[in-house]
Amino acid sequence: MKTITLEQQLSEDNRIEMIDFYNEATEDYKFWSHDYNMHFGYFIPFKTNPFKRDTMLNQMNAQVIKRLGISSSKNRLIDLGCGMGATMRYALKQYTNVIAYGVTLSDFQLKQGNKLLQGKNGIIIKENYNDTSFQTNAFDSAVAIESFCHSGHSSLSLKEAHRILKPGGRLVIADAFLKKDKTQLCKGAKHAYQNLCNHWSLEQLANINDYKQNLKNLGFTTIKIEDASFKVAPSVLHVPFAIIGFILKKLLRFKSIKRESLHNLKGSFYALFSGLHMKSFGYYIITATKN
User: Fold this and answer.
1) Phi and psi based region of residue 119 (left: phi greater than 0; alpha: psi -120 to 50; beta: remaining)
2) 3-state secondary structure of 265
3) Most buried residue among 128, 158, 179, 265 by CB atoms closer than 10 A?
4) Is 261 among the domain residues?
5) What is the domain extent for residue 144?
6) What does the pLDDT look like over 219-238, one tens digit per residue?
């Protein structure tokens, strides 16, 4: 009989919780984004409107895709933790030479995301991004926007991304990270961190410095880490207004708020709270190339 460690059991429990969370709460993201962008945005003065959330959310898609350096030749792109496929749809709209694949563990995202991809050169598959069935050296590009955090920024995620990328293939990650070890967080930052992980089903957030070293150890080169915290902040400031609007909408329609939706709302609040602790948390865009 195979022995399961406590760490493996906790990881599996988190995976199941995360699947339940997204199966039940994904439809709530329609309120956050008309395009079902399940991430924060990127603000550029005079280019994106800070009062129109989707312009910033789609700009995050644009910034991530731009860093892939897609040329005019055929490009197989994979979104590792694709949600409803918003980033895939953005890439397919910008590049006719892209074939996009997305992986998710949520049946709801799989079904609804593929409906949104109908007629486009992309598909969402039910797979674990830590252990996919794709062949080695299968993809030219890979993205992970606020998805690797659900498995604790595990080295398994990076190892699998490295395996399925072709030599010279590029990985772009956009996500929140810790700037210091979690044992060094102040009381307020620790409270925000624990509740953020709890309500958004995150195993943990990695230390950005450790993560960079992890990328190097796995064979990634030309690693560029950009602190995008101030670019992301204007979209994070939409959180309290989105929460209030969502609750009012439910109440006016005499609808109850699901447990998963409440977790989502609380997680959003603690994301805002975390952002106030800028010495402890940061939002980064990471670009790395496979040797």
Assistant:
1) left
2) helix
3) 158
4) yes
5) 6-290
6) 999 999 999 999 999 999 99
Angle (CA) 197 234 30, round 5°: 65
Residues 6+ apart with CB under 8 A from 195: 266, 267, 270, 273
What pLDDT was estimated at residue 3?
Answer: 46
Does 202 map to a domain? Answer: yes
Return the CATH number at 281.
3.40.50.150
Starting at the edge strand found earlier in the chain, the sheet holding 122-126 runs 122-126, 98-104, 75-80, 139-145, 165-178, 281-290, 220-227
pLDDT at 151: 92
CB atoms within 10 A of CB 267: 20
Token pair in block for residue 213: 């070293």
How many domains would you assign to the chain?
1
Q: How far apart are CA 207 and CA 216, in angstroms?
A: 15
Half-sphere exposure of 220 (CA within 13 A, CB side): 30
- Per-residue confidence (pLDDT) for residue 10, from 0 to 100: 39
Task: For residue 30, give the H/E element and its range.
Answer: helix 29-32
7-11, 203-207, 212-216, 232-236: lowest mean pLDDT where? 7-11
**CA dist., res. 62 & res. 69, Å (int):** 11
Of how many residues is the chain composed? 291
Closest to 129 measured CA to CA, from 98, 150, 107: 150
Of 174, 222, 157, nearest to 66 by C-alpha is: 174
- Alpha-helical runs (H) found in 74-184: 86-94, 107-116, 155-164
The number of C-alpha atoms within 13 Å of 225 and in the hemisphere containing its C-beta is: 18
> How is residue 183 written in tokens?
């044992």
Confidence of residue 199 (pLDDT cuts 50, 70, 90): confident
**pLDDT single digits (tens) 64-81:** 999 999 999 999 999 999
Q: Is residue 1 part of a domain?
A: no
Within a domain: 88: yes
